[in-house]
Amino acid sequence: MDIEDKYSIDYAPLSNGLHRFSFKVDDSLFEAMESNEIKGGDCIADVELDRSESCLGVHVSINGAVTVECDRCLEDCSIPVDFEGDLSVHFSDTVSDYDGERMWIARGQKLPLAQYIYESIVISLPYRRVHPDGECNPDMMGRFTPAENVPDAE
Length: 154
Prior knowledge:
single chain, elongated, alpha+beta, 4 helices
């Protein structure tokens, strides 16, 4: 299955009102996005879609964990993901990329969410990605000299 199909919603047959969807986010999304920083993941993206005649209101909640490289010991590290976000989708004859909060699609086109879900996970990650204290690879950590043991450079 194509990654765009896996993470898209065919809203055309839906009636106006609120609809709920759930997507399992796994390694295939990160591989398709050719992610250099996320090695894999196991998350659930819950989507509430509020359909009207003129637009779609989309609320996305993503929970789970992704695997990244620990900034301290360079080993794989599991980082929790907890994201809440809203996307406003407008129908237009001119389809263009979204700006993070608004998306324009042609009427009848499936709502593509792969890029939005991926970017939402990336921005939810902390700036510093490390194992909890004491869980880093002890061999790698043994190669570092604590700052208090480094002679002053004069």
